[in-house]
Specification:
It is a single chain. The protein is an alpha+beta fold and 536 residues long. It is 38% helix and 11% strand. The protein contains 16 helices and 17 strands. The strands form four sheets. Strands 2, 4, 5, 8, 9 and 10 form a six-stranded mixed sheet that branches. A five-stranded mixed sheet has the order 12-11-16-15-13. Strand 4 and strand 5 form a beta hairpin.
C-alpha cells in the first residue's frame, strides 16, 4: 500500500450542498483546490488553527472548501503535497451504497455464486449437508442458506438479526435509496433488491427456530474455524446447531416482527409466517424469564457472541411486536422493560436497546405511553447531543472517544452515525445529519491512516481483509464492498500485537489478512454503513 498522505479527504467525495473539510497533518499557511480535468485552481483557503487530536496523537489542521460546489473531480494541494482525487456531485456515494449492499450477496451460504452476478469472485455452492443438533446429535436438521457471519463460515442468529434489522430499518426510513437494482439473482423489478437480500437471511433464521418450543438456536458453526485459505465449498467439517439462547430468541422475535410489517405489501403469506414465528418466540421468552447467557460448549471454539443480559433483546422484541400488531400486551411488556436499567440507545449485537427505542418512537406519540415516549426520546437526544459534542472536539470530526477504538470500531463509527441520523429524523435538526456525514468521510479515508475501510472503494482501500474467500480465491483484489473492523487498541491478535505496539488508538490498524482483530469483516459492520449511506 502507498504511503499515508498528509492531506486526508473522503476518497469518494462530497455532496454538492454539504460542508467539505479536509484534514491536514502538514503545517502550512494555505491550501488550494484543483480541478483534476483542467488543472485550474478553483479555490484558495486558509487552514484552521492547530487542533490536538488525542485519538491519533497528532496535531491536525482543517481545510474548509465548502464553497466549492460545482460538480467534478478535484484534489487539494498545499506546500508540495496533495490529496487523493475525489468527486463532488449530487450523489457521490451511489456506487458505494450499491456495493455495500451487494456484499451481502457475496456473504451468502448454500448457493453457487455465479460469474453473472459474482464476476471473478464466483464460487461453488457450500455447506449443503444437514446440521447436527449439538444437544441431541442423533438429530440432523436443514441449516442451509443465510449469510456467513464474517471472515469465517459460521452463521450466528444475533449478529445476523442485527444486520437484517439495519437493512430493514434503512428501507423503512429511506425506501427511495433502494430503487435501483444491484442486481442479484432474485431481481424482478417488483420487490426491491434489499428486501430480496434480507429474505435470504430471514429464510435461514426461520430454520433456526425450534418449532415445538419457539426458542431459537444461538448459532450454526463447525467445532473450530477452518484454515484462512479454505474456500467455502471446501469447508466440509460437520456443522452444529448450538443450544438455544434468550438473546437469539429475542432478536429473532424482533426481526421477524419487523419483517412481518415490511414484507406485507409484497408477500402476505411470508409476512404472516414471520409474525406467527415472532409471537411463538415471544411466548418462549415469557415462559423463560431467567435464562443464563449463552456459553460455548467446551468442544466449540468458534465465535461465542455471549451476552449475560437479555433485557434489551426482550425490550426490542416487545417494541417491534407492538408496532406491528398494536397488541396492548406487547405494549405493557415494553413499558415494564423501559424502566429497567440498561442502555436504550445502543445498536450493537450485544446491547440492542436502540432498536427498541427506535421502533417505539417511530410508532408516534398517539400510540405510545406519554411518559415512556418522553423518556426514550430524551435518552436518544441526550446520546445524540453527546455525540455532537464529541465530534466538535475530535480532529477528524467523529464521535469516537479513545476508549471506543475497540474490536469493530468501525461498527461503532457507523452505529453512532445511525444514532445521529435518527435524532435528525425525529427533530429535523440538520446538525445531527451533518455530523453523521462526517462519520462517512472517516470511513472512506478522512482518518489518521488515510485509508478507505471499505474494500473496492476509494483510491487507497483495504486490500487484505481477514476474509477466507478473499484469501483463498486466487483473485488479487478482495471481495468488494466489505467494511473492515478498523482500529483496535486492544491488539487482540498476534499480528497486531507484533506490529502496532505503542501506536495511538486511531492508528491501531493493519491491513493484513492475519489481523482478525483489526481487519476482519462482518455482515453487521456492513449493515449500519448501508443504513447511513441510505441517507446521503
Amino acid at each position: 500500500m502507498s504511503l499515508v498522505r498528509q492531506i486526508k479527504v473522503n476518497q469518494l467525495g462530497y455532496p454538492v450542498d454539504a460542508d467539505k473539510i479536509a484534514v491536514l497533518t502538514a503545517k502550512c499557511s494555505e491550501f488550494e483546490v484543483v480541478n483534476q480535468k483542467t488543472k485550474k485552481i478553483v479555490y484558495r483557503g486558509q487552514l484552521s488553527e492547530p487542533i490536538e487530536d488525542q485519538a491519533s496523537n497528532e496535531v491536525v489542521y482543517h481545510a474548509d472548501f465548502s464553497n466549492v460546489s460545482d460538480s467534478g473531480h478535484y484534489y487539494i494541494q498545499a506546500d508540495g503535497v496533495r490529496s487523493a482525487t475525489f468527486l463532488i456531485s449530487d450523489n457521490p456515494y451511489f456506487e458505494a451504497r450499491q456495493g455495500i449492499l451487494k456484499a451481502f450477496y457475496f456473504f451468502r451460504c448454500g448457493m453457487e455464486l455465479t460469474e453473472e452476478y459474482a464476476g471473478e469472485w464466483a464460487h461453488k455452492a457450500c455447506h449443503l449437508a444437514e446440521s447436527i443438533v449439538f444437544d441431541n446429535q442423533e438429530c440432523k436438521l436443514d441449516g442451509t442458506g443465510g449469510w456467513h457471519d464474517a471472515g469465517d463460515y459460521g452463521k450466528y442468529t444475533v449478529p445476523g438479526a442485527k444486520a437484517v434489522a439495519d437493512l430493514l430499518l434503512a428501507y423503512e426510513l429511506r425506501p427511495n435509496a433502494f430503487n435501483q437494482a444491484i442486481p442479484i439473482p432474485e431481481t424482478d423489478g417488483v420487490i426491491p433488491d434489499i428486501l430480496h437480500e434480507c429474505r435470504y437471511e430471514l429464510d435461514w433464521l426461520l430454520k433456526m427456530q425450534e418449532l415445538e418450543t419457539g426458542a431459537v438456536y444461538h448459532k450454526l458453526t463447525t467445532l473450530e474455524f477452518p484454515g484462512l485459505d479454505v474456500m467455502p465449498e471446501d469447508d466440509l467439517d460437520p456443522q452444529y446447531l448450538t443450544p438455544v439462547s434468550a438473546t437469539a430468541t429475542g432478536t429473532f422475535a424482533a426481526t421477524m416482527a419487523m419483517a412481518a410489517r415490511i414484507y406485507k405489501p409484497f408477500d402476505q403469506e411470508f409476512a404472516a409466517v414471520c409474525l406467527e414465528r415472532a409471537e411463538k418466540a415471544w411466548q418462549w421468552l415469557l415462559m423463560n424469564p431467567d435464562v443464563p447467557g449463552f456459553k460455548n460448549p467446551v468442544e466449540i471454539t468458534t465465535g461465542e457472541y455471549g451476552d449475560e443480559d437479555d433485557r434489551d433483546e426482550r425490550f426490542w422484541a416487545a417494541a417491534e411486536l407492538y408496532r406491528t400488531t398494536g397488541n396492548e400486551n406487547y405494549h405493557q411488556a415494553l413499558i415494564e422493560l423501559a424502566d429497567e436499567d440498561f442502555s436504550k440507545t445502543e445498536f450493537g449485537w450485544a446491547d440492542m436497546g436502540g432498536y427498541g427505542t427506535t421502533a417505539y418512537l417511530l410508532n408516534g406519540k398517539a400510540l405510545s405511553n406519554h411518559d415512556v415516549y418522553q423518556k426514550l426520546m430524551s435518552e436518544l437526544m441526550h446520546e445524540a447531543e453527546k455525540l455532537l459534542n464529541n465530534c466538535s472536539k475530535d480532529g477528524y470530526l467523529i464521535s469516537l472517544e479513545n476508549e471506543d477504538y475497540v474490536w469493530g470500531s468501525n461498527m461503532g463509527v457507523m452505529n453512532k452515525a445511525m444514532t445521529l441520523l435518527l435524532a435528525h429524523h425525529f427533530t429535523g435538526n440538520v446538525a445531527y445529519k451533518n455530523c453523521a456525514l462526517d462519520h462517512v468521510h472517516y470511513l472512506f479515508g478522512r482518518n489518521a491512516l488515510d485509508i478507505s475501510y471499505v474494500t473496492g472503494f476509494g483510491d487507497r482501500p483495504v486490500m487484505e481483509p481477514h476474509h477466507r474467500p478473499s484469501v483463498g480465491d486466487q483473485v488479487d483484489a478482495p471481495v468488494p464492498g466489505l467494511v473492515s473492523g478498523g482500529p483496535n487498541a486492544g491488539l487482540q491478535d498476534e499480528y497486531a500485537a507484533a506490529h502496532l505496539q505503542g501506536k495511538a488508538p486511531a492508528k491501531c490498524f493493519v491491513d493484513h489478512e492475519d489481523s482478525y482483530a483489526t481487519n476482519e469483516v462482518t455482515v453487521y459492520w456492513n449493515s449500519p454503513a448501508l443504513f447511513v449511506l441510505a441517507h446521503f
